[in-house]
Amino acid sequence: MSKFEHFDANPDGRDFAVGDIHGHFSRLQRVLDEAGFDPVVDRLFSVGDLVDRGPESELALDWLARPWFFAIQGNHEFLAIQHVQHRPLDYRMYKASGGAWFLELKPDAQALFAAQFARMPLALEVETACGLIGLVHADCPLPTWDLLRTTLLGHMPEQSGLEEFCQWSRKRLQLQDMSGIPDLRALIVGHTPLPEPQTLGNVLHIDTGGWRSNGSGYFTLVDLATLEMNSPPTSAPDTGV
Ligand SMILES: [Mn+2]
């Protein structure tokens, strides 16, 4: 499976992006219903982190099997892969970040999840009528999208730390870096929970904490053709189950 995936435009329906899900697929479904999402023609692109923290992490494989759902590999998917592949892993951090459900699974089940997670790309792009949209989990580690695409497709030597940057970096937000990615209409990322979406240059940060256990956040959906986002709920947020 490629570390980079390309999607042609969707002539029949709408395309949406959503931020970190973290085991809250029922809440996500409610937001899709509110947007009138039609699984027959629409597509949903996730910036990754499908699992950990929420009660429905085990549904990640069901969602990944849906023909209209596509997801980047977030750092939380990578933590599961690290465990299964016996790579160095800070288990205290992993458990504190919601990974206990995974560590409690039987090894066979863990292997099944890790195999699917390993197939998820680190970056993907979607053509729209208004230009090319890129998605990574945390940030684009290179100055242009073309450089990232070329590198992840294996046409250029990979620099060390590149994948880690894609999944973990918070630098752009910390620096409030407005420079953006010149060869994209927009780059959409998650990873850092924010009270509301934040756009820096043409980089949209859309993890608005819809997964928060106290219900204080909400899921942001971005229409990839218009870059319009759903409004935050006006009533008291559902605290879920
Ligand atoms: Mn993350």
Summarize the structure.
By secondary structure, the protein is α/β, with parallel strands linked by helices. It contains nine helices and ten strands. It has a single domain (about 5-225), classed as Metallo-dependent phosphatases (Purple Acid Phosphatase, chain A, domain 2, 4-Layer Sandwich).
Features:
single chain; 241 residues; alpha/beta; Purple Acid Phosphatase, chain A, domain 2; four-stranded mixed β-sheet; binds manganese (II) ion
Topology:
Elements (H helix, E strand, L loop, with lengths): L3 E4 L7 E4 L6 H10 L8 E4 L13 H5 L4 E3 L3 H10 L6 H6 L3 H4 L3 H12 L4 E6 L2 E6 L8 H8 L9 H7 L2 H4 L11 E4 L8 E3 L2 E3 L15 E3 L18
Parallel strand pairs: 1-5, 2-3, 3-4, 6-7, 7-9
Antiparallel strand pairs: 2-10, 5-6, 8-9
Helix pairs in contact: 3-6
This protein binds manganese (II) ion.
Textual characterization of the structure:
It is built from nine helices and ten strands. The protein is α/β, with parallel strands linked by helices. It has a single domain (4-223), classed as Metallo-dependent phosphatases (Purple Acid Phosphatase, chain A, domain 2, 4-Layer Sandwich), CATH 3.60.21.10. It has a six-stranded mixed beta sheet with strand order 1-5-6-7-9-8. A four-stranded mixed beta sheet has the order 4-3-2-10, with no helix packed on it. Helix 1 links the parallel strand 2 and strand 3 (43-46). Helix 3 (75-84) crosses helix 6. The relative contact order is 0.19. Bound molecules: manganese (II) ion.
